[in-house]
Amino acid sequence: MIEAFVLVVVKPGNEEKVYEQVKKNPRVKEVYRVYGEYDIILRVEVPTMEELDRFHDETLRRIPDIEMTETLIASTYRGVNG
C-alpha cells in the first residue's frame, strides 16, 4: 500500500467546494484545511504507483478550482504511537 500526502493550493474562496469534491473519493483517507502556503492537505492510500498516477490525473487535475498540488510519498515512518 502506498500512502501519500497531497498538498493543495486552491483558488481563493473555493476551499469548501474542493473539500466536498475530494472527500467523496475512496482513496482519500483524511482531508485537512491548513494555513500557510497550501490550503488543503490530503492523505491518500493507493495500492500502486499507477493508481496514484490515476488519482492525480483523473481526479485532481479535473477539479478546476485546484491551482497546484505537490505530492509527498510516505516512506517508512508511521505515527509517533505506532
UniProtKB/TrEMBL annotation:
Q: Which Pfam families match?
A: AsnC_trans_reg
Q: Gene3D superfamilies, from UniProt?
A: 3.30.70.920
Superkingdom, natural source: Archaea
Q: What sequence ranges are listed for the domain Transcription regulator AsnC/Lrp ligand binding?
A: 6-74
Write down what this protein is called.
AsnC family transcriptional regulator
Q: Which organism is it from?
A: Thermococcus eurythermalis
